[in-house]
Write a structure and sequence with these properties.
The chain is mainly alpha-helical. It has 19 helices and 5 strands. The strands form 2 sheets. Strands 4-1-5 form a 3-stranded antiparallel β-sheet. Strands 2-3 form a two-stranded antiparallel ribbon. The longest helix has about 35 residues. It is globular and about 80 Å long. This is Protein translocase subunit SecY.
């Protein structure tokens, strides 16, 4: 405990770090305040219980409840994330985008500009769909056409405002702004989830179990979080030796570094892609009433065995697919060769590329299986009697985002402390990047 207070004191002594943390907290406070502002022309008292389920419930969680509150920030940063994913995939498939990626800072600015324009287009389309399908008719106080046009402008402006807040945090705050905004939205639902679970166990609306069951659930949640951290942090270090160069009286190179190949290089993307496909059966039954009661109903129930097995299979498949298109062993091998590096015992060039590809294939399978287990844990938690709201935190996209964002922010704070010769946040821990210097060529590839 003393070490913790000493570390917090050291953080406060670094003026730049203190200002960045305070700025980040201020921006997040502004975001949470604005997220409670309801759309113009909507009667908040007429919304009633507007809670969402399925993919809409997931979007509502990412938006911190703004989606169900019909807030001006109802769409949050999701259109921006969708645009970023599209541009990223275009950078893999379209030669002109690949060229922009290799142009350095100027190419990055062009890609960011394209992402912003695409965000506006996606937001406009989603705004129209949101107003027509998610806003209760009895809550609208304006004529339908006027309300549609006005709300489209306001929702688009709201998404751009959130995107601007995220960029400000990234530039002048600590951590990745967009990720922090999503994390705050998820955490905002945690007190409500804990309150519901407490009431279900030991409150007035108790369903049995008592305090012992609640304690066991908290312990299980802690174990799941630790397991998720292991998956996010897990890497396979491939050693890289650099040739010695003598320039004058000085020696360059000759050091051994490593390529940190992540066990879960795909991150949360396989779960997002798989979830998008798993909501197709429910959408089909909604638009084609005759399909209701058919075998498709098994895939609309998130707690059914058929749903869980199919979901897990899709996640494993998408993990291999996304890893294959984002991690390029040939490019890593070429970069290593240009910089005079080689893997001990492996010939440069094609042999190195084959070796790296084989290592990636071997570590991707267990990573994909573990990712699938994390994704279906909320469904398993519901089977054990845990409330749906609290079960969301036992795995899936929300838990992976929470763990990833927290670790990334801790790494940045750690780097500030070490630069000022203070002990880091986790002196005896294993925060990725604290010890050792990874090969430069791997940073671009990962």
């Amino acid at each position: 405990m003393k070490k913790l207070f000493t570390t917090l004191s050291n953080i406060w002594k670094i003026q730049e770090l203190k200002e960045r943390i305070l700025f980040t907290l201020l921006i997040l406070l502004v975001y949470r305040f604005v997220s409670h502002v309801v759309l113009p022309g909507v009667d908040p008292t007429a919304l009633g219980n507007n809670e969402k389920s399925g993919i809409l419930g997931l979007l509502d969680m990412f938006a911190g409840g703004s989606f169900s509150r019909v807030s001006i920030l109802a769409l949050g940063v999701m259109p921006y994330i969708s645009a970023s994913i599209v541009v990223q995939l275009l950078g893999i498939a379209v030669p002109s985008f690949q060229k922009m990626q290799k142009e350095g800072e100027s190419g990055r600015k062009k890609m960011n500009q394209i992402t912003r324009y695409l965000t506006v287009a996606i937001t406009i389309v989603q705004s129209v769909g949101y107003v027509k399908t998610q806003v209760p008719a009895e809550a609208i106080l304006l004529p339908n056409t006027l309300f549609l046009v006005l709300s489209t402008f306001v929702l688009t402006a709201g998404t751009l405002f959130v995107m601007w807040l995220g960029e400000k945090i990234t530039d002048k705050g600590i951590g990745n702004g967009t990720s922090l905004i999503i994390m705050v939205g998820i955490i905002a639902r945690l007190p409500v989830a804990i309150s519901q679970e407490f009431s279900a166990r030991v409150g007035s609306a108790s369903e049995g179990g008592g305090p012992v069951a609640l304690v066991l659930e908290i312990v299980a949640l802690f174990a799941v979080v630790m397991f998720t951290i292991l998956i996010v942090q897990g890497v396979r270090k491939v050693p890289v030796q650099y040739a010695k160069k003598i320039v004058g009286n000085r020696q360059f190179g000759g050091v051994r570094q490593y390529i940190p190949l992540k066990v879960n290089a795909a991150g949360v993307m396989p779960i997002i892609f798989a979830q998008a496909l798993m909501f197709i059966p429910g959408a089909l039954m909604q638009f084609v009433p005759s399909l209701q009661g058919s075998w498709l109903i098994q895939f609309s129930n998130t707690t059914s065995l058929a749903y869980s097995l199919t979901f897990a299979f899709l996640i494993i498949a998408f993990t291999f697919f996304y890893t294959a298109i984002t991690v390029n062993p040939t490019q890593m091998s070429d970069d290593m060769k240009k910089n005079g590096g080689f893997i001990p015992g492996i010939k440069p060039g094609f042999a190195t590329s084959t070796f790296i590809d084989d290592v990636i294939s071997k570590i991707t399978f267990p990573g994909a299986v573990f990712l699938a287990i994390i994704a279906i844990l909320p469904s398993i938690a519901v089977k054990f009697g845990i409330k749906q709201e609290f079960a969301h935190f036992f795995g899936g996209t929300s838990l992976l985002i929470l763990v990833g964002v927290v670790l990334d922010t801790l790494q940045q704070i750690e780097s500030y402390l070490l630069m000022r010769h203070y002990d880091g946040l986790m002196k005896t821990g294993r925060v990725t990047g604290r010890t050792g210097v990874p090969a430069a060529s791997s940073n671009a590839a990962l």
